[in-house]
Amino acid sequence: MAKPITAFTCTACGASHRKWAGRCEACGAWNTIIEEAPLSQGPGRGLGTLKGKPVPLSGLATQEAPPPRVQSGIAELDRVLGGGLVPGSAILVGGDPGIGKSTLLLQAAAAFARTGQQAIYISGEEASAQVRMRAQRLGLGDAPVRLGAETALRDILTTLDAERPDVAIIDSIQTLWSDQIEAAPGSVSQVRTTAHELVTFAKRRGTAVILVGHVTKEGQIAGPRVVEHMVDTVLYFEGERGHQFRILRAHKNRFGPADEIGVFEMTGGGLSEVANPSALFLSERGEPSPGSTVFAGIEGTRPVLTEVQALVAPSTLASPRRTVVGLDSGRISTILAVLEARCAIPFAGLDVFLNVAGGMRVNEPAADLAIAAALLSAREDSALPADTVLFGEISLSGALRPVSQAENRLKEAQKLGFSRAILPAATKVEGVAGMRIDRISDLTGFVGETFGAG
């Protein structure tokens, strides 16, 4: 009998290695390679001489109708899914512990069930009584949702195959185990196998399967990254514990736009959708104050206005602090360097604190100009007019680069009462009347016109 081959797999990225090493060559993580037995051991190196059946092929011009969609009635959830839930799709939802993933999916299951869809909710982390208590608290006790508590993959697949639901929610994938794998639930092999079986079932039976995934301390979905490749849609449920706002963001979507967001507000009766996020994020903005600017951004297909807040104070430390919440810290360092090198405005010996109000996270380069304006406003103790919005990308030379969808940004700002916009000179804007538009070609000109000599 041939000696079984031992495999070594990285728990961070799922890469396979011939032998153990302290550092994964694929992702660079340390002490993440573990030993595990292969899923199967075939007799020989190849497939042998047995031929398979030919695969039917078609051309690129094949006319196929778009996939049908089922809307839940929760507009923010349907928006992130690309217009509704596609039958037979596999969706992975991740988020920090206690952020509201189970609450959101229980509300989604009830919403789909009330539209006539058969929904099954399988909980692997909580008992059925706990889920019923949450449903009663959310006012969903009368929703026709079938509930089960199980972690054995074989029993779950047997139940789903017998019931043939339209929507199946599994909470969570890290708690499931297959009796074919000699490993603990949550291990790389168990997560990979259970996810593969559930995705295969979704494609074969036409059931939309929604999986909940745990996240690591870095905020990434735990387990091998191959799970994210297997599913059709990857959603992250984001938010800060101190804020009531929650953001459902699509990082991958084969049936709709990626980076689309849905905004919810956590209340005593569960998650309520926010139809106008811009008005909500700016609702507590009072009189103009130094260090406060409004950025007109784009999240997916939706324009969203957010407030960027900055505080610049003298530092007593040898190395001044740079504290950033809701923004890319590397991008902030670049903007500070451009201000010092191109505009001769030093921030040495000054502590810099930056924040995006409302718990929102902004990753768009178009926020560069609003961030620079907030930093200069805080440093010079000079407030910008309250009716002004800004957007534009700053290059390393100090020039301002145009950004896309400028008209949508300006129309959203005009809708909320803003009458002035500062943007790059090369930005093409048409169809926005009644709004003063100041075009700036570089950062030096912006500093001179807005804050004087600095």
Automatic annotation (TrEMBL):
UniProt entry tagged with the keyword Nucleotide-binding: yes
Region of interest called Lon-protease-like, as start-end residue ranges on this chain: 351-454
UniProt superkingdom: Bacteria
Signal peptide (UniProt feature, chain positions): none
Matching CDD domains: RadA_SMS_N
Motif residue range(s): RadA KNRFG motif: 252-256
Keywords attached to this entry: ATP-binding, DNA damage, DNA repair, DNA-binding, Hydrolase, Metal-binding, Nucleotide-binding, Stress response, Zinc, Zinc-finger
Domain RecA family profile: 66-215
Residues reported in the UniProt entry to bind ATP: 95-102
Entry domain remark: The middle region has homology to RecA with ATPase motifs including the RadA KNRFG motif, while the C-terminus is homologous to Lon protease.
Family: Belongs to the RecA family. RadA subfamily.
Function: DNA-dependent ATPase involved in processing of recombination intermediates, plays a role in repairing DNA breaks. Stimulates the branch migration of RecA-mediated strand transfer reactions, allowing the 3' invading strand to extend heteroduplex DNA faster. Binds ssDNA in the presence of ADP but not other nucleotides, has ATPase activity that is stimulated by ssDNA and various branched DNA structures, but inhibited by SSB. Does not have RecA's homology-searching function.
Classification via PANTHER family: DNA REPAIR PROTEIN RADA, DNA REPAIR PROTEIN RADA-LIKE PROTEIN
Protein name (database record): DNA repair protein RadA
Record organism: Paracoccus mangrovi
Species lineage: Bacteria, Pseudomonadati, Pseudomonadota, Alphaproteobacteria, Rhodobacterales
